[in-house]
Amino acid sequence: MKYGFFDDLNREYVITTPLTPYPWINYLGSQDYFALISNTAGGYSFYKDARLRRITRYRYNNVPLDLGGGKYYYINDDGDVWSPSWAPVKKDLDFYECRHGMGYTKITGEYGKVKVGITYFVPLNTNAEIHKVVVENKSEKEKKIKLFSFVEWCLWNALDDMTNFQRNYSTGEVEVEGSVIYHKTEYKERRNHYAFFSVNAPVYGFDSDRESFMGTYNGFHNPDAVFKGVPTNSIADGWHPIASHCVEVNLKPGESKVLIFLLGYVENDPEEKWEAKNVINKKKAKKMIEAFSTEEAVDKAFDELAKYWDGLLSKFVIESHDEKLNRMVNIWNQYQCMVTFNMSRSASYFESGIGRGMGFRDSNQDILGFVHQIPDRARERIIDLASTQLEDGGAYHQYQPLTKKGNNDIGSNFNDDPLWLILSTVAYIKETGDYSILDVMTPFDNDESKSTPLADHLKRSFDHVLNNLGPHGLPLIGRADWNDCLNLNCFSSEPGESFQTTTNKDGRVAESVMIAGMFCHIGEEYARLMEKIGNKEEADRAYREVKKMREVIMEHAWDGSWFLRAYDDFGRKVGSHENEEGQIFIESQGFCIMGGCGLNDGKAIQALDAVEERLATKYGIVLLNPAYTRYYIEYGEISTYPAGYKENAGIFCHNNAWIMAAEAIVGRGDKAFDYYTRIAPAYVEERSEIHRLEPYVYSQMIAGKDARRFGEAKNSWLTGTASWNFVAITQYILGIKPDFDGLKIDPCIPKAWDGYTVIRQYRGDTYRIKVKNPNHVSCGVSKITVDNKEISGNILPLFGDGKLHEVEVILG
């Protein structure tokens, strides 16, 4: 069942009912100011950091769902009250539509011959969001309408807002000047910041105190002021500050009126603190308000945003026979990659923005999916990440985006983290050819006195694995590897208690086969990078260590039909046919094959056949099998989940891409693409009533075959699934792969395909690559011509002339 449709021409998903199975959201903003907005106008806004600079309030897990706050508008049409976004009033509308686009959302509602359309977006280079509201009278009589806006301010630190009521109920302060409501709570403190909400029209009245606006025992659906049609002109003094304008809109038959609302944030310089005693300095706010005071200015800003996305999405474009493939690659996958770059895993409808900052592992992987769009920002992010690294090569698992300081609460004992920094840096250099990043002096733990070139950080990342090997010569897992819930060194007396890292009395510690596979894959990339910069000694050393690790894997991590997942702290196998449950895991099958293990003796094929037999389902590949049905204290959190959910045999979509890549590596293009279509959002739209989450973006997890709700997704938007699936489809399946010396062309596609065309911008040039498959093979390049001249090999030459170059690729 579908709840809308894709409008590919406008790059929008159009939702045709407010009653989606779960709130379907979008993101506004691309630089410092961001907002989440659902298809019924729920959500919130923040500046840079969803925890430390929250602007508006949202209540997660609210009942009814998604009525925890939002950017709401109410219409009072002669006493008849409704909302164009359906929520929060929830009156049945004569027409409803939500269009989620690239950095904007348009919601349109019609009731009683009045049509209201709202366009929400964040202009480029602006710390504010615009709500363009168009009210149209479609009746044959004059309409006298009162339109009420509504946002609820947060008290800046979202965690403090949810916990420190004894203080916060006494700190709310506002100023009202004309049609602008200023929220100045905490302005007296060192932060010197405030927010504002304005409208470009005279107001009939306003409210800035929630109780005065709503009534003590009312909700968002029935605020007193709206239903009475009379704002109270309340001034918040402690308690709960809000911002609501009341605007009278008088319309003749067929007439429409445009109102521009601006919700913004200002951080003043110290010398700009006060205009007068206890009166905030409003210069920056007034400048923003003036800049977007007219419909023409707003439309120009919207056009600039559209051109910005035109530019981003022009870097990689596919033309194929499959419209769903085109839709995913050209629009939604790349869009999601940019959102995950901006947000990491911090702020969604499943992440509150409070508990997590930017993930070290997460953000490095996100770079893989967006580096081709904005390489300069990838470079900046790599340096930020490396700056949180520790001197021993380890890294803080998370850091706070506002302060860029490592999170001591989480710590640094995730032993896969350091390797991801190598992979993201290599991806950046392959995309740009910019080796100078390796010379950037970069601190450890943000201590400038401990700065070394980035190249040294990469060496320490590589050596962190070698300095932490276990009894089999495999890497120690630490608190966990990529699978946060596989806590093989961690014990607790009862499930749910905090885990403490320990070793047992024999001194053995748990080892990760996945990190071993990562080391082979990423370590070889490190060795190649060292070759490119002329450091032959380091390259040779790296190649030797990778070769040695492959040998260790084949000796100690092959279980007869697949790769083991790990050894636990007692030296026992994990992910083995010897285990009662959890006999095979997905991660080590993908990364060991990506790392070159088992390619020459048929074992890679054997492992992938085991994946198909034991792990593959119609909705994707589950993480392990059989699911754990009881708690294993020596395995940690992974066995605390019900069977079929999350890490306990859920379909963890992130790692499905590693199997797609592995299938492509062994030349099985049909299987690689088949797995791609099982989880790619555009291909699951028809079963939205089962999947439940947005049919235009990937989710982290889909309930596995052991779950009662098999096929139901959770945790959409902010997931490494986005970047890795983009890498899998564009680099491993379509085979357009950036390399140190140019674009490498190496497709592995379904045999039935006749071909496809990819337009790829790369290092200032544009390549139109026409792949033809006359012999209907999966892989193998027999001939490449560039500008009608045949080249040797499969790496396209670099021109540097900024022109379009025609490439023809013949498979065979």
UniProtKB/TrEMBL annotation:
Gene3D superfamilies: 1.50.10.10, Glycoside hydrolase, family 65, N-terminal domain, Maltose phosphorylase, domain 3, mpn423 like domain. Residues 308-735 form the Glycosyl hydrolase 94 catalytic domain. InterPro entries: 6-hairpin_glycosidase_sf, 6hp_glycosidase-like_sf, Gal_mutarotase_sf_dom, GH65_N, GH94_catalytic, GH94_Enzymes, GH94N_CBP, Glyco_hydrolase_94_b-supersand. GO terms for molecular function: carbohydrate binding; glycosyltransferase activity. Pfam families: GH94_b-supersand, Glyco_hydro_94. The keyword Nucleus does not apply. This is Uncharacterized protein. Keywords: Glycosyltransferase, Transferase. GO terms for biological process: carbohydrate metabolic process. Residues 11-293 form the Glycosyl hydrolase 94 supersandwich domain. SUPFAM superfamilies: Galactose mutarotase-like (SSF74650), Six-hairpin glycosidases (SSF48208). It comes from the Bacteria. The keyword S-adenosyl-L-methionine does not apply.
